[in-house]
Amino acid sequence: MISWRRACLVAVLLVVLLAPVAPASTQGSIVPPPLGPVAPSGPDAAVSGAIRLPAGYLTPPLELPEAGEFVSQAAALRAVAIVGDVGDGTATYRNDMEGAAAALESHGVAVARFYYGVTSFTWGDIVAATQGANFLLYMGHGVYWGDCAHPDGVGGFYLGGGQFVSPDALRTDLAGRLAADAVVIFSHACFTAGSTACDPAGTPGVAEAQRRVALYAAPFVDLGMQAYFANNYFNAARDIVNRLLADPAVRNNAGDVFRATFPNNPATHYDLSYPTAGYDLWLNGTDGAWNNAFVGQPGYVFAGDVLADELGGLPSAVGFLYSTVDAAVTPITATLVPANVGTGDPLTWTVVKSGSWFSVSPASGTTPTAIVVTPGSLDGLSPGTYTGAITVTVTSPPGVLETPQRIGLTLKVTANTLHHVHLPLVAH
After folding, report:
1. Cβ contact 6:59 at 8 Å
2. Residue 134 CB partners (closer than 8 Å, separation 6+)
3. How many helices (H) and strands (E) does the chain have?
4. Torsion angle in degrees (nearest 10) through CA of 217, 307, 83, 292
């Protein structure tokens, strides 16, 4: 009797032998067929590419790092690339992700990498790096609950080390962080394109594949993502990136990108419905072999070449000087003017203060409304240095770069009188 694990491996070998090869003229290289990890870890070790969400599991409360190497660089375009733990196949997935990351970087995109087994990271690190990100890529286990062949639900990430990220955590923790033109790309993750290795032969049919893809895409559509791609073939993520970021004069829309990516076959294309207005759900394949899916707005053309919204115009620090002899402070007030140094479009912001010796007005506003910092009654303060801070956070639109910003405040109290130096005006 052949074990299920061995049967999975035999099935993988058959796929390798029988899968079609993309023409070299259109792909630039031979594209390997879909392949699950050889020996995945987790409670479903015999299931290639899928892992069950533990019963009652809750994604831990989000803890964002104060700062760190994982925060995306200050670049016009940003991407976050995640490779989860899939056992012996993890290194293979990392290599495939590196192809996509190199493609992104060749187009000027800054890539924050989160690769299991290479660096130590948490979900909080990933969330911090998604601020303003235009691309979110994931290779790893597809997550399900219930029975693998007939799951009650699917969705989310498995990072490794017992770290799961649920669909609800995606909705909550990524809200307002991703860029308005963000795209998500899944590779090799079961259920994301419709199929999983634990499906009985010839299943699922188109209706079940549609249900799985819709469930997996739902959090990202809710977040406002323009396009969701899921493809189980190696090099697919790289090819999708290159097509999305082609020269603007010849750039493809999202639907054309899907149609052009191996192994799309016009004869097995399914144009299906999605409940959100303006979005379509497309599958390409046959019963039991769903390895290519798209959810999004087919006519959308990636607009990342357009400047991104970015909070700027604010100093990192402001200082005041107070004389107990003169009972005077200079400057009397400090005026700070938040600005959108990216697109110039209005930004809605809030400000929070830390410190008791000054006031801030207003507490919220829209650019170019100014923030006025005014020292309060300083009588009775002993000579010395007093500190405080204000933090300016953009609340709308989502995905703004360089928010929040902290401005440090310093008050120096002296027992000496203040001397004002007046320079002569020279006219030519």
Report:
1. no
2. 77, 78, 79, 109, 178, 179, 181, 182, 183, 302, 304
3. 8, 24
4. 40
Q: What angle do CA 354, 359, 365 make, to 5 degrees?
A: 90
Report pLDDT for 420.
58
Q: Which of 110, 101, 245, 126 is nearest to 187 (CA)?
A: 101
The residue behind tokens 């549609």 is: 210
Contact 282, 294 (CB under 8 A): yes
Query: Tokens in use for 106?
Result: 């060749």
First to last CA, the chain: 100
Q: How far apart, in whole angstroms, are the C-alpha atoms of residue 181 and residue 227?
A: 9
What domains does the chain contain, in order, with CATH numbers? 25-296 (3.40.50), 311-414 (2.60.40.10)
Question: Is-above-0.70 flag for pTM?
Answer: no
Confidence band (pLDDT; 50, 70, 90) for 7? very low
Interaxial angle between packed helices 90-106 and 236-244, expressed in degrees from 0 to 180 and rounded to the nearest 10 = 10
- The residue-averaged pLDDT of 122-149 equals 94
Report the chain's mean pLDDT, rounded to a whole number.
83
- Residue 235 to residue 112: CA distance in whole angstroms: 19
Beta bridge partners of 270: 283
